[in-house]
Amino acid sequence: MSIHLHNIAKHFGNTQALEPINLDIHEGELVGLLGPSGSGKTTLLRIIAGLENADHTAQPGKILFGDRDVTNVHVRDRRIGFVFQHYALFRHMSVYDNVAFGLTVLSRKRRPSSGEIRARVFRLLEMVKLEHLANRYPAQLSGGQQQRVSLARALAVEPEVLLLDEPFGALDAKVRQELRRWLRHLHDELNFTSVFVTHDQEEALELSDRVVVMSNGRIEQIDTPDDLYRTPKNRFVFEFLGDVNHLEGKVSNGVLTCGDAYWHVDLPDGHEELLLRPHEVRLTEQPTSESHLPVTITAISPVGAEVRVELEADWLAQPWLATVRHTDFEHLALRRGQRLFAHPRHWRRFPETESKATEQSRVA
Amino acid sequence: MSQLATWRTGSTRVLPGFGLSMGISVLFISLVLLLPITGLFGQLAGLSFAEYWAIITEGRVVASYMVTIGAAAVAALVNAVFGLLLAWVLVRYEFPGKRLLDALMDLPFALPTAVAGITLATLYASSGWMGRLLEPLGFQIAYTWVGIALAMAFTSIPFVVRTVQPVLEDLPAEVDEAAMSLGATDGVAFRRVILPHIWPALVTGTGLAFVRSLGEFGAIIFIAGNMPYETEITALMIFVKLQEYDYAGASAIASVVLFVSLALLLAINIWQGRFVRRLHGGKG
């Protein structure tokens, strides 16, 4: 079921939680709403669910599920599944009764027979790999198990739209990773439309078909994870999607200077701020005629496929982060306190006056 | 024995002050609670069982049990409904004057019960504000068991509100929302999700209100009318015996009230323990 939001806005008292928003989500899509806290992403999700009402303005907002106008439809009649961050399981009911709840509250006409309910609940429990815990109570389960129960409970009523509010936010890293993969798998298998909220950019990029980046009640960009990472529309999106190093200084005659550091760069004269990702910083033992950016290593942490190196210098307001391959790390024999030279491989700038971002690569 | 030894040395206990605080607690309970009760049984010792039985099964006394228990049951049930409603309103909604209403809830505890009794009696007497309105309609409240129940409800409502309120606060609104997103109507969500959660607290609160009503004296005595066999409460029977300097008789009746209250509280505690274990992960 596709979802269309038209001119949806929301006020809480005097604060504007959502500026008028338009958003189209295609059928079968898995969409992530990504943003810092207070960006309005949860409010938007709750409005889609019907747990919150959009503002009544001069041009009233509209919510469509496919062709069905659900703007004024109560949450219980919208045929959605909602998964809460803190599970919101019914603590006095067994796992089985929790999952069966949505089926047992159906009107007598639409309610399946008790045998059919039983079969359906066990099929769902099998899907979330919890059939052996059907008689347990929520308090006897781990966080990850509880969230799987809450997912099975939401899916029991065969919703057309599945909405998840920070579904993995309360779980530890490893369980989160596992559940993410599992949700992606489930989504592909059952082919419903899903919208989930997260503040974790890695989660959004890994899980979503498309990501909606939000800040201050506005949509900043809607794109596939790949396009989002490669071509961020503005500085907020770029900074929110990963670690960023800032290089700030004055450009004159094609040379950017900042304290005792300088760097040849093809930009007009004036004040400039350039942004670099950690993997766009190269480290060498000697400066070149093109660049002279002396830095000192203050911390080294070998994490996964790369080594993360923290760099400081008196011409830098904030320390830089560089990621180095293990072979380079061994080759340079990096250690704390060592003085090196940084070379930007690639950078971006988001001038406030121009709407278009500039980027430039240099063969290093 | 070995356990005693570790208690004495305190080697396994990190929190300090167990000996002192426990000692003072036991002493306090003994002085304030156990000593008077022992005194009560001491009075009873002067009676043979036949005498004891004769006192507590005397017609007028038995009638007072009926009035007291009946009125207390009605008051407790009424309080269960309205106390739950009040707790719900205080927890779930924001409105001007919420703090004031919350504070008002404790008024029956703070007010001398005799003051409440006199106020209720003048209000509901046939010449009072309420009595004047209700009497022509055929409702007689003062000097009937309805008046007794009313006075009991007044003094015991905080028990229900104050036991249900924290449990309701503990139940996140998300749980209601989950029930509704699964298609439950308001009524079904309340009956199947909210009520089972607050049920133990509601039963405990209602039980406490009931037990409190069994022993209430000051608030009731002015509105009850105190007609033998009709509107005499058990607490009044004790008072009457005391005025006749019949301490043993008073103690005998008091012991009945004590046993009923104690048995009820114990039963609620045991039942609630089993229920709570289930919510917190026990096998219950």
UniProtKB/TrEMBL annotation, chain A:
Gene3D superfamilies: 2.40.50.100, P-loop containing nucleotide triphosphate hydrolases (3.40.50.300)
Coiled-coil region(s): none
A GO molecular function held by the record: ATP hydrolysis activity
Keyword Cell cycle attributed: no
Pfam families reported in the protein's UniProt record: ABC_tran, TOBE_3
PANTHER family: SPERMIDINE/PUTRESCINE IMPORT ATP-BINDING PROTEIN POTA (PTHR42781), SPERMIDINE_PUTRESCINE IMPORT ATP-BINDING PROTEIN POTA (PTHR42781:SF4)
Entry protein name: Sulfate ABC transporter ATP-binding protein
Organism of provenance: Vreelandella boliviensis LC1
From TrEMBL, chain B:
Subunit structure comment from the entry: The complex is composed of two ATP-binding proteins (CysA), two transmembrane proteins (CysT and CysW) and a solute-binding protein (CysP).
Stored InterPro entries: CysT_permease, MetI-like, MetI-like_sf, Sulph_transpt2
Transmembrane spans: 20-42, 62-91, 103-125, 137-161, 247-271
Membrane-protein topology: Multi-pass membrane protein
Domain ABC transmembrane type-1 per the UniProt entry, residue ranges: 65-268
Name the record gives this protein: Sulfate transport system permease protein CysT
Gene Ontology cellular component list: plasma membrane
Family: Belongs to the binding-protein-dependent transport system permease family. CysTW subfamily.
Molecular function as annotated in GO: ABC-type sulfate transporter activity
Protein's organism: Vreelandella boliviensis LC1
Keywords, in A-Z order: Membrane, Sulfate transport, Transmembrane, Transmembrane helix, Transport
Location of this chain's protein in the cell: Cell membrane
NCBIfam families assigned: 3a0106s02 (TIGR00969), permease_CysT (TIGR02139)
Function summary: Part of the ABC transporter complex CysAWTP (TC 3.A.1.6.1) involved in sulfate/thiosulfate import. Probably responsible for the translocation of the substrate across the membrane. Part of the ABC transporter complex (TC 3.A.1.6.1) involved in sulfate/thiosulfate import.
